[in-house]
């Protein structure tokens, strides 16, 4: 068996159970054991994945609710299986029912990107990659076919698609053609490699002698994305040889977790008129003259309204329907693993 088949199936089982039960914990599985058993029975057949689409499963097995639980207690019955085979199981689109109807037809696209960055102690950029996802919320009647084109599709690598995406249009024209599932789903994921300009810079300085370590950390905007940089935080673990610290910041506040030698500098919105600076001293333990290990700084931030990879959605068309749905687009970029080594 391909190893990734087992991993992917387990992830799908976890997603389905979370969707049904509103989470996945030991108590939830115990309280809803019958439904979990029924789901596993439909999702796996004789050792092979069978029905894994959430919309089809909901047509076959009704999600739990207060009424069904009360009836189960009163009548002693616990089966919530549908006696009629869902139409989607025999259609060309097993992820979607053919009789979906909405009074307001709308589709929303979220372009979510996470940055992986490593900067070495000399300030040189070692790694800068973006992992992105396009998440969709579709509330569309009938069986619409959507086509999405990008202004610059050549920059993306390592693409992975939802099963609804037709692969041939992507191979020939690099456009996405798909009949969407009903509700929320992940349309595709991708990676953009070898980017050059990070949105912010961090300049740390640690110098120690005589049992003291002087600290200066400067943070600022390097490549202005044109949008506000929000929720900026910088955290780093204190070296084991540090006994106490006296650090101040000209913007934001500094905190430490109780029982943990980790400092968190919360900057918030990145100011454009000045560069936030953290400075002060750290006192080393007795017998230590200088700092022998230097911390790695972890940076977090979020930028709404822009994709830092530069990927742009050109247009989205909806076909095979008589209505004109409302379409919404949103982008967000955030730091995932943003390391500054000292």
UniProtKB/TrEMBL annotation:
Its main location: membrane. One of its GO terms (cellular component) is endomembrane system. Residues 104-341 form the MHD domain. It is found in: Endomembrane system. One of its GO terms (biological process) is intracellular protein transport. Keywords: Membrane, Protein transport, Transport. PANTHER family: AP COMPLEX SUBUNIT MU. Belongs to the adaptor complexes medium subunit family. This is MHD domain-containing protein. It comes from Ceratopteris richardii.
């Amino acid at each position: 068996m391909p190893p990734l088949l087992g991993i992917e199936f387990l992830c799908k089982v976890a997603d389905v159970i979370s969707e049904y039960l509103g989470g996945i914990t030991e108590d939830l599985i115990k309280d809803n054991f019958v439904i979990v058993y029924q789901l596993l029975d439909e999702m796996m057949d004789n050792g092979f994945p069978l029905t894994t689409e959430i919309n089809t499963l909901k047509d076959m097995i009704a999600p739990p609710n207060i009424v069904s639980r009360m009836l189960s207690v009163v009548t002693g019955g616990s089966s919530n299986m549908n006696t009629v085979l869902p139409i989607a199981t025999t259609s060309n689109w097993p992820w979607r029912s053919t009789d979906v109807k909405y009074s307001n037809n709308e589709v929303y696209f979220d372009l979510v990107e996470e940055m992986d960055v490593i900067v070495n102690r000399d300030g040189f950029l070692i790694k800068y990659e973006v992992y992105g996802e396009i998440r969709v919320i579709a509330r569309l009647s009938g069986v619409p076919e959507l086509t999405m084109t990008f202004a610059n599709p050549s920059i993306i690598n390592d693409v992975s698609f939802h099963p609804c995406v037709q692969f041939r249009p992507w191979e020939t024209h690099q456009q996405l053609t798909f009949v969407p599932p009903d509700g929320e789903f992940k349309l595709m994921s991708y990676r953009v490699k070898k980017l050059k300009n990070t949105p912010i810079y961090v300049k740390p300085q640690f110098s120690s002698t005589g049992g003291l370590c002087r600290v200066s950390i400067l943070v600022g905007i390097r490549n202005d994305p044109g949008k506000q940089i929000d929720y900026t935080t910088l955290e780093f673990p204190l070296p084991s040889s540090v006994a106490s610290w006296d650090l101040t910041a000209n913007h934001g506040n500094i905190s430490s977790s109780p029982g943990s030698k980790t400092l968190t500098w919360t900057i918030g919105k990145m100011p454009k008129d000045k560069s936030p600076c953290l400075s002060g001293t750290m006192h080393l333990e007795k017998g230590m003259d200088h700092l022998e290990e230097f911390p790695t700084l972890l940076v977090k931030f979020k930028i709404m309204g822009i994709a830092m990879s530069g990927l742009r959605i050109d247009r989205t068309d909806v076909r095979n329907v008589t209505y004109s749905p409302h379409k919404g687009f949103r982008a967000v970029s955030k730091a995932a693993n943003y390391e500054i080594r000292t």
